[in-house]
Amino acid sequence: MKVIAHRGSSQVAPENTYPAIRRAIQDHVDGIEIDVQLTKDQELVVIHDEWLNRTTNGKGFVFNTTSAQIKKLDAGSWFNKKYKGTTVPLLEEVLEWVKPYSLELHIELKNNLLPYKGMEEKVIRILNQHNLEKKAVLSSFRRESLEICRKIHPTIRTGYLCWSTLLPLLEQSEWDYLHLDSIHPHISLLDHEVTLLKNMGYRIYPYVIQRKHELKKCLRYQVDGIFTGSPNKAKQIIRETTT
Q1: CA 196, CA 218: separation in Å to the nearest integer?
Q2: Neighbours of 175 (CB within 10 A)
Q3: Which portions of the chain are predicted below pLDDT 50?
Q4: Cα 74 to Cα 7, 14, 79, 82, 84, distances in angstroms
Q5: Is residue 172 helix, strand or coil?
Q6: pLDDT (tens digit, 9 = 90+) per residue, 85-124?
Q7: Secondary structure (DSSP) of 191-204
């Protein structure tokens, strides 16, 4: 079972930042998950919320703020004062950080509230420029977005994020054209349907696994990987449970 650091090791360092990604690498994770959005000047930045208020000292929406303005914000103090001065990274910066390591890079396209026209093409282009498309898995809650990814790059891996139901996915004929590599269900959706989806050829990566009983449930259902903000702790529990 792969252990993927959700927004980096986000329980011990500010999410989607260099300290969280560096800690994830130190935790010897199998993969790192990040979120991308487009700024006012069409730059790809790594941040989860559509607005700046929660994880930076800025205000307003990402789409209405330039990358230069965002790079001036403090993205660490909200988590802990020792991270004061930590910045919101560009996607290109993250790619440079992870390039030397044998890691999967799960990139969530944060377009479930805002469509961010053209974001899929920009993400795939920059992955190609860094020769990292084979390490990447692009995910989204928007089926249409994954369809665009598939048209741009027919062999890039894609994952569909689910938070409410898995039932539509059991109608395989309606999803075949997407050639999804994986399904990423919320942990609350983990039940017998997951076994059916695995039998249909999908890899299963639940999110966000933070508690011991959630992790044990994932082990029972033999999922392919988990997203967790505490990868070091998760790996320890897996070792204790499976040895």
Answers
A1: 15
A2: 18
A3: none
A4: 17, 11, 11, 12, 6
A5: helix
A6: 999 999 999 999 999 999 999 999 999 999 999 999 999 9
A7: SHHHHHHHHTT-EE
To the question of pTM greater than 0.70 for the whole model, the response is yes
CB atoms within 10 A of CB 71: 16
For residue 32, which phi and psi values (nearest 5 degrees)?
-130, 135
43 — phi, psi (to 5°)? -100, 145
Nearest C-alpha neighbor of 107 from the set 129, 79, 127, 128: 127
Are 118 and 39 within 8 A, CB to CB? no
Active site residues: 6, 48
pLDDT per residue as tens digits for the range 158-174: 999 999 999 999 987 77
If one counts every other C-beta atom within 10 angstroms of the C-beta of residue 134, the result is 10
CA distances in angstroms from 121 to 117, 130, 131, 225, listed in the order given: 9, 14, 15, 27
CATH architecture type of domain 2-242: Alpha-Beta Barrel (3.20)
Please choose, from the candidates 151, 200, 195, the residue with its C-alpha nearest in 3D space to the C-alpha of residue 177. Answer: 151
